[in-house]
Amino acid sequence: MLIIHVHAHVKTECVEAFKKLCVENARNSVNEPGIARFDVVQQADDPTRFVLVEVYRTADAPGKHKETAH
């Protein structure tokens, strides 16, 4: 299993759009056979900061994920 944490600091005016797109991406990503989890976490005390937690079943799954349309 491979776990990747992606930290993002988003401009205030882009937070809602970023959140919407990330949740849609996560919803599609969990349907990929190589992905065990894909979480979107927004920091409570600073809503402009996010962490995407990507949990892959195999070492080659991240590469396959990057090839998807979403």
Structure commentary:
With 70 residues, the chain is α+β, with helices and mostly antiparallel strands. The chain is built from 2 helices and 3 strands. A 3-stranded antiparallel beta sheet has the order 1-3-2. A hairpin with a 6-residue loop joins strand 2 and strand 3. The longest helix has 15 residues. The chain starts with a strand and ends with a helix. The mean pLDDT is 95.
Brief description of this entry?
The protein is α+β, with helices and mostly antiparallel strands.
Which key features would you list for this structure?
single chain; 70 residues; alpha+beta; 3-stranded antiparallel β-sheet; 2 helices; 30% helix; 34% strand; elongated
Query: Please, what is the average pLDDT?
Result: 95
Tell me about the largest β-sheet: 3 strands, antiparallel
Supply Rg: 12 Å
Biggest sheet strand order reads 1-3-2
N- and C-termini, Cα separation? 22 Å
Q: Given the C-alpha coordinates, what overall shape results?
A: elongated
| Alpha-beta classification | alpha+beta
Proportion of residues in helical segments: 25-40%
Secondary-structure element order, N to C: EHEEH
User: What share of residues are in beta strands?
Assistant: 25-35%
Total DSSP E strands = 3
Model regions low in confidence, pLDDT < 50 over at least 5 residues: none
Number of helices: 2
